[in-house]
């Protein structure tokens, strides 16, 4: 938000933003320059502040401090240190004047301010005044001080010392500035640096020293200071350093402004940041987390798209053979009539099928173009690289996220307080931004409230546990049931595949069952999850996991059907291959017979007429593309109908309806986080699986994600209402990432399986003619790399090497895992310690007179009884006190601190009352008088047993 | 120091610049607020004040839910009439360069609606309602206020003293970046 507001404000208000910089670049600069000086500087103001604050209380330490300060000052005094010494006097004076009263204090601050004023004067070029004048002034001041302070004798000496030194310093500085050339040259750079530093220091002091005084007072003090300042106008007024300093200041100013602009620019460059922030401010971070995930996904797909298109598609288009040159790049004659029909194209047949979008189009030439680009190799590498890159990216992101946030929720001590006092951005000057900010603050409060309520919820734990077990049981049952159903349906469909007399239902049984399951199960799970009564954030995770499990069934059936298809195609291919070879032979034989000339080369067959194999890779690719496209259509239509139409109806029919549509039954839709996230994840799985067989799929997906970002952002803002319980998403999107990783792994398997085991089609695709797809690598190694590389690879592929390597990796994983666990433990420990320390501090301050009171009573009680044996009423009183005490205490401390405070008190109270309670309870009427009395009581009551006296 | 229309003596300018975090253009802005009230010539420090109603309409403050409190806590009379000095004061405290301690003091004053030097529950409720445009239910407000006090109250008096407040705010990561107005 602040970024946005920054920008907004700058546009809106159009105010000179660097105005406020001019004064404080000194400070900036100081901040920028680290090092020893900085540290020293940091310390000085602090001590000064101390001095000012408790001047009256601790005079003695003050004096000491003054003395201390004097010492180093005296020790110094060389040429280099003249600035220092100039800086020193006011302080010494202050140290000396410490014993004065209020008035003195005011003066002190004048002097301090004067340090600063000096800088200003210097700027004006108001040089130095005569030494004499200075002396006079110092004297005047001293006199002033004398008038005020009684015990000034010592101080006077100090002042004199100082004055003397001052003189020295000034003279040296005079000589320095006016005449002596060598000195100037000697310390030119150093001087400049020193001066800057001194100046910075002063500025810093000035800034820090700005007390919450009224302007009036500040000005008055300053005015006095100004007069005092002049005499400290020393070396600083000189030309070169001055200019250099001014230049530096200017540059710092520019640099800061540049940095700010750059920061703004960078934020502006993050795509959709504004949109997502807007959604977040109205719908909470949970909904925003989906969009962030979507954006991340878009970024990843963009890179994949770059690889695929840059290394595969474009080279093929530019350098490969053109369309129609060879059979695999030509539409067969039988299909040519319909190849341009819309319905055919929408099924990705016809021209689409024989285009660069699909595997089959690519030629098996080893190299293409003048660059000798090894296209088949590149194809395989990109296919594997897609997985490699995705895996790396997902895991890297997960690791980074774990680093950033890790746990759910915030374990800060001041969640609400910070929200309350620091969430409003005072920079906001734009009405729209302000509205968004209000919304986001409200939302974030609501999120925290939900968390808090969850913490405070205390209910029947056994019932809760029982319900949770029950819910999980129910869900497992329904998952198992649907799993079996899917299995059953798939079996049946295999059975049906061999028959021809199928009814419509039997043909579509599998699809129907799958979509029914997808329709029924998620709401069912959600209903069952109500039983569990988890925090919505955790509930979302469960829901995601469960639906994910359900969708795995989907995936399973899909892959099953696909492999079926592939297998039949492979069988078919064998026969076609023979037929096609035979046809080719026939053609040539015929030709040579007709021409009667066995030498003549026959013209090549028209590529459209060549008999083709089924090319199972392209078929698989088409399957995936179709699936993706239909998924896009379905999800967009769902939004349009399910959300938009519903919102329109609810909104406008509400005027003429029997009941309140907005508050009542249909109401507006909520954004379905789990459904959308899973849709995204599974869609990505399809892309990963399909990208190898249909390089164009990645492009389609990029378009889809891009449009979906705008479309869904719009839909959510226009048609949805925030969740009933807006909850904060866990800081890291790692759960989503985990799901994605799982899907990535699952989609990796079939692809790698096909690459490794299935033979590629004989007449299409970059690997045609090879036994296995990865043979292309072997070929490259053999033909293009030097021989020793081949042997190297063969060694590397030796199981004797691979097995130890795997073992090593396993061991490394084990080691790293245990290390991380150890770190985690120590982390927890530290956290606990911090919390304890804080609670203790709180308790100590909090219960300074309550807990301690109990303890005191406790302490008092025992010795008292042993000390004053004969006082019978006393113990009695104490009993009463003891018994009553626990009650008032909790009320005295606020319930808030209850967390630790009350518990502690309770413990103490218990501990204290127990031994005593034993007395009165066992003998109710008796103990009052002589009863438990001094003799027996103490010894029995405490294990300690007070020393008998 | 380039304010062409307004007239200050050099000393005045120096004084302001030395003691402040931001000065340039401030007088211009101040003058704009009430051209008929504020003279251009400030050499003899005229005594004039601009009423609250005019100040809170500055674009910098217009959208701020605490605008009235800001102005009030900087005005000497507590009614929100600001003299130029106080006006300058305000923006110097709210400038980027003011130190955290200083900002904390004024933030405390701003959030202390009933000016009793404590942030009691009533103050917190007001703050919260202003922040959320009263969209939270009373129970939620109650809860938030309870929690806020519980989190920061160190001395157990059920309200936040300045020490409590400072202790809390000094650890807030974005206090400095949000409690800040550019002018």
From TrEMBL, chain B:
Keywords: Calcium, Cell membrane, Cell projection, Cytoplasm, Magnesium, Membrane, Metal-binding, Repeat. GO terms for biological process: calcium ion homeostasis; camera-type eye development; mechanosensory behavior; neuromast development. The keyword Transmembrane helix does not apply. One of its GO terms (molecular function) is calcium ion binding. Pfam families: EF-hand_7 (PF13499). The keyword Transit peptide does not apply. This is Calcium and integrin-binding family member 2. It comes from Neolamprologus brichardi.
